[in-house]
Predict the 3D structure of the following.
Amino acid sequence: MAARAKRYALVIDARKCINCKACVVACRAENGVPLGKSRNWINEEIRGEYPRLLATFEPEQCHHCQDPACVRVCPTGASRQRPDGVVVINQSDCVGCRYCMIACPYDARFFREDSGVVEKCDLCASRLDRGELPACVETCPSKLRVFGDMNDPSSDIAKLLATRQYRVKKEEAGTNPRIFYLL
Amino acid sequence: MKTIEWGFLIVSYLFLGGLSAGLFFASGLAALLQKNEQSGTDRIARFGALLAPLPVAVGCLLLVFDLGKWYRFYKLFLHFEWTSPMSIGAWLLLAFSVVSLLCAYAWVPQEWRERFFAALPPRLAFLRRVNRDFSAWRKPLALIGLPMAVGVGIYTGVLLGAVQSRPFWNTNLVAQMFLFSALSSGCAALILTIIFSKGSPEVAELRLLYMLDICFLALEFFIVVPYMIHGQLSVQAVRESLHLILGGPFTVVFWVFFLGLGLLLPLGIEIRETMPALLRNGRFHYNKHLTAVTAVLVLSGGFLLRYVFVFAGQMSAFK
């Protein structure tokens, strides 16, 4: 029997998020993200009026879609999907046309003026290749991020996806995102 | 993180690329319809062919300078990605530019050619080998180039229409809208060229250009209308994105300056000018100033259509 292909994905239990932004800082340090830009961010929403308030925090980054629009529109193949599902940018092929930024339903990409290329979360691909976790997952103090191979039934992420209800964002854009938010 | 990534460089390129496609289309059509050198459409074919390579060349320069680092543009031609409208478009633009340049050379008047090669320094004398009459190639080149011109006109719309995450663009009507706008801007540019060139314009020339332009503008209008109706009857994200031109920031530009002044007004003027000649075998109205203003309105309408779509489209998104 052929080995089942890996499919990395991320489960986020957003209700545990306390908006400490350690993930953003860890990502910045790990990937040398310039100030003013971010590969990951936290959506804040505050509803109601004091004292009846609801504040929700929702971490977000590249969704590493199964059918990524950015990869489809890239004219040079610089944006591509690895066999394990991680969507990466080959910076030496990127011409900086920014078509992918326009095509991404999640606005997960940014343009780097100094190098003239587009950047985004690659789930710390170089760490993955060393067998380590992405920096944001490792650093999160609330441990609300669960990263792993969703095709491996014994992984934490596969168990969570099998037993918990979840939602994905902007499903109607048709890109099959792979960040799952627990309900 | 929502930013406008494609600005006026891209708007101008989409306009100029379309303009070249339109010029080549009208020129090619006139060349194929032409019976002999003296027939009335000769100047349309010649001016169109001579002008066609210019806007697209400027447009491509704008595109290159819009890239992150302009000197990386050659990487576009190291790859072919058939799922990317931009990759298909880059190759198409290259092919179209080559064909339109060859076609322009085939249409260069003999005196210009002789004068140019006479002025060549001796070091470049080997270039004189191409100092030949290529006029036999005009029709074959028009035949090869016509589908490419249509392709360039369509592709500028597909580039936007193929983006599934921007509801304002992601309909099957944007490509045709851009195509007919491109073809009509080519006609308008030719009308301008002909009325300001030496020798008074002939009825046959103006009638062909007006007829083409009326067809293209009418087609464009009947695509813009269903675009809005269909959008209003579509899913919430599309309806919300249409608000950008129905009450939102682009309402005045779209309705007054594009649809009113850039499409319906010139369409009305052109119909009024042409109708007597068509219906009652009467004389063709011709007023140089009115014709020039009409053509300028058509051109500005074409530019504004692209302005509205490029900017509004990037502001539209799924919630």
